[in-house]
Amino acid sequence: QVQLTESGGGSVETGGSTRLSCVASERSSCMAWFRQAPGQGRVGIAYIDSDGVTNYAASVKGRFTISKDNAKNTMYLQMNDLTPDDTAIYYCAAKPPGIFCVPDGPHIGEFGYWGQGTQVTVAS
């Protein structure tokens, strides 16, 4: 079972930046970031696979960057040019080892392991 621990987030002003981290207890073939805004469902915003291939939701493409450090089993989400619409709880997620990313993902039903979530609030 993959255990995920997130850190980072907090309060940021519009136009600012912040970085989230997610430490995994073991390596996964596909890891992703999801977010859940107040009153809305959880949606996928980016994934990264074991080869470093990434995919982004249109809402964050060009502003957010997903990356990973295999030596540390850590995934990151660099978030730039933040707006109040980015306010949400951010979750990292992982698939079981050997299960790969789907090209048009990330899709919530594909991920079996989740972090506890970390709040990002963007002040207007």
Describe the structure.
By secondary structure, the chain is mostly beta strands. 0% of the residues lie in helices and 49% in strands. Strands 2, 4, 5, 6, 9, 10 and 11 form a 7-stranded mixed β-sheet that branches. A 4-stranded antiparallel β-sheet has the order 1-3-8-7, with no helix packed on it. The termini are far apart.
Radius of gyration using CA atoms only: 13 Å
What is the CA-CA span between the terminal residues?
A: 40 Å
* Basic shape: globular
Average pLDDT reading? 95
Which secondary-structure class do the elements indicate? mainly beta
User: What proportion of the residues is helical, as a percent range?
Assistant: under 10%
* Main sheet summary: 7 strands, mixed
H/E series: EEEEEEEEEEE
What's the total helix number?
0
Strand fraction band?
Answer: over 45%
Write the layout of secondary structure elements.
Blueprint (H helix, E strand, L loop, with lengths): L3 E5 L1 E4 L4 E7 L5 E7 L5 E8 L4 E3 L7 E6 L4 E6 L8 E7 L18 E2 L3 E6 L1
Parallel strand pairs: 2-11
Antiparallel strand pairs: 1-3, 3-8, 4-5, 4-9, 5-6, 7-8, 9-10, 9-11
Question: Which features does this protein show?
Answer:
49% strand; mainly beta; 7-stranded mixed beta sheet; 124 residues; globular; 11 strands; 4-stranded antiparallel beta sheet; 0% helix
Short description:
This protein is mainly β and 124 residues long. The protein has no helices and eleven strands.
